[in-house]
Amino acid sequence: MQTNLADFIRDTPEGREADAILRSCVHCGFCNATCPTYQLLGDELDGPRGRIYLIKQMLEGFPVTRRTQNHLDRCLSCRSCETTCPSGVNYHRLLDIGRGVIEQRVPRPFVERMTRYTLYTTIPNPGILKNAVNIGQLFRPLLPTALSEKLPDSAASQRPRVGRPAAPRQRRMIALASCGQASLTPNTAAAAGRVLDRLGIEMVELESAGCCGALRYHLDAQQQALDDMRRVIDACWPYIEGIHSGGVEAIVMTASGCGLQVRAYGELLKHDPAYADKAARISALTLDLSEVLAAEREGLMELLQLPAKDSAGERRRVAFHSPCTLQHGQKIRGVVESLLAAAGYVLTPVVDAHLCCGSAGTYSITQPELSKRLRDNKLAALSEGSPDVFVTANIGCQTHLQSGSAIPVRHWIELIDERIDERRDD
Hints:
426 residues; Fumarate Reductase Iron-sulfur Protein, Chain B, domain 2; alpha/beta; 4-stranded parallel beta sheet; single chain; 26 helices; Glutathione S-transferase Yfyf (Class Pi), Chain A, domain 2
């Protein structure tokens, strides 16, 4: 695709990056076949190819309006199109650049601005979020449906985090105390810590790190998000340099959305002279929890030894929803499923497993109608095999799916943790 970018962006780092991405697109349209919003709406401008043309026109200096902004807002940033694209178009970066430009050029209505401001000041702050959840549970009947559905049951959110052995280990990994996950599903990190401890790895949670920056970045508060990323780097750096506890070997992520964001630090901060090298190092050390357990498979299998009496008919049936941030963003496919199968669970088939569930950060709040349609489609697909439980790898997907499901939705590490406990009791 030929380009002629306008003077305001042509010679900037973002302009050069956008120009290269635009030129790599051959406008074949394969991306539309796997785009969730195009499948729902059938509008070319609500598919990747159409959005690429809208961004191209904007960067070439053509006028932009709320209509353009709405089409870009409706993108889930799921990256399914990138998995499909035969030309390797780096669509998500082009979208980030386009959203950053249009945010400066097209004012949002007051209510929309306040909604976004509330979201990116509340959710990334664990203290504020926890209090907001508690208050929300009290006043649930008065809240809009899009918000009330996100609240966990009181018993679940107040469930004490089960402790894990405190004995020091020679091997250590650090983990971020995920802002949303810590308040909404506290047992996820506790289960991960117990499983890693049994494998001889100490998981050190960094409460001082704060939010990874994903939420603010995808709400187009990009400068604030970059500050979040710098704070995470500052919190992690003493451990990486070995100042604390003799150093760590990796940063383990229990939420795939956070993991994808941290893995992008090197790319997003590459023009920051004070943080570029550190950001690249942080990204390189970041691993999803499933990758860590896959690398420790031999030790894990010893913990998961299945007795002969455990027949397939007695095993729980599980439907796994692979978050977009895991399968399309980090390109980790089949790993969680193999771990669950090794633990003795029966994986039920899920049609159109590549499609987004509609969570997409705060999308379920900013685009409730589309999000609910995608959620209901995903729940129908997950239910096809009559599973006992749904599992996923990201807090956003977990709470979003649970808002429409009578079947429990859990993080997959909880099932591994429970199976290890069962084996120890046998």
